[in-house]
């Protein structure tokens, strides 16, 4: 991947069967350049030891996924229920983990709109992010808002397009919040490459995998094995000015041919090869 314009990264959801320690050691052995940490893999009793292991791995901690990362309810993290309590949990994650990863990005999303009230959810997400941005700046990190695929509407998200996410980001009006661009989530948006280019410098997290008609909401493929026009979207992301980590984020639960049942080292190698091929096509 000599001319690939991004660092090659892996999100820990991609290797759910491995422990946190296995993730760090094996990613490093496989030449992974950046790790996206998932707080749910951390043991509170050993958090300092685990985060120091990540710090000393030589990999960039490109982003962190808090255990509670939405301000409204979420199927992946249903508790606590109240938005104020969820805000406090997100802030706690910021204050606990940011000191180990200066300059990293914390990923967030709206959560599911209560009673289908998307407007309320978007408005209150703006308010929550306005409160969190100064805290992020104080801690030396930033935030990234992720629109999710329509398969996640009413369970995880109130937004499903880049433009909706940018409406919230613009409403916050603070440089500490940017856009998490996950190709699996937004590739079916109309004129997606134009939307990526419009987002420009606001893109601060890039996640990749590939798409087939899903067996479950957690059914993603190795880049290059599905329908996403990766070459066009990678080029658009580069044109937008992003030069951070291109992070593989794969979920593969409740499917008949789960990637979690395969040799995960081979999965990571194939992900790197798939991205390299897509870029060379671009």
UniProtKB/TrEMBL annotation:
GO terms for molecular function: dioxygenase activity. Keywords: Dioxygenase, Oxidoreductase, Pyruvate. Pfam families: AP_endonuc_2. Residues 26-264 form the Xylose isomerase-like TIM barrel domain. This is Putative 4-hydroxyphenylpyruvate dioxygenase. It comes from Gluconobacter morbifer G707.
């Amino acid at each position: 991947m000599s001319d690939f314009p991004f660092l090659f990264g892996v999100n820990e959801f991609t290797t759910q069967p491995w422990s946190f320690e296995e993730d760090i050691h094996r990613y490093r052995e496989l030449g992974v350049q950046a790790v996206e940490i998932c707080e749910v893999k951390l043991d509170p009793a050993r958090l300092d030891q685990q985060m120091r292991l990540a710090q000393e791995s030589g990999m960039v901690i490109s982003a962190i996924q808090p255990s509670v990362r939405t301000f409204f309810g979420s199927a992946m993290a249903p508790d606590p229920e109240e938005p104020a309590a969820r805000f406090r949990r997100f802030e706690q994650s910021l204050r606990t983990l940011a000191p180990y990863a200066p300059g990293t990005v914390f990923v967030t999303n709206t959560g599911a709109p209560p009673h289908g009230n998307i407007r309320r959810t978007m408005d209150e997400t703006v308010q929550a992010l306005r409160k969190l941005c100064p805290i992020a700046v104080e801690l030396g990190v930033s935030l990234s808002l992720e629109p999710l695929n329509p398969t996640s509407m009413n369970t995880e998200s109130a937004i499903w397009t880049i433009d909706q996410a940018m409406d919230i980001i613009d409403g916050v009006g603070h440089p500490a919040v940017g856009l998490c661009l996950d190709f699996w989530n937004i590739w079916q948006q109309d004129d997606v490459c134009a939307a990526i280019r419009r987002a420009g410098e606001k893109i601060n997290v890039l996640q990749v995998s590939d798409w087939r008609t899903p067996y479950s909401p957690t059914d993603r493929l190795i880049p290059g094995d599905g329908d996403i026009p990766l070459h066009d979207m990678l080029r658009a992301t580069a044109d937008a000015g992003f030069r951070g980590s291109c992070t593989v984020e794969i979920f593969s639960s409740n499917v008949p041919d789960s990637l979690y049942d395969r040799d995960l080292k081979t999965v990571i190698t194939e992900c790197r090869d798939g991205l390299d091929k897509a870029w060379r096509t671009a």
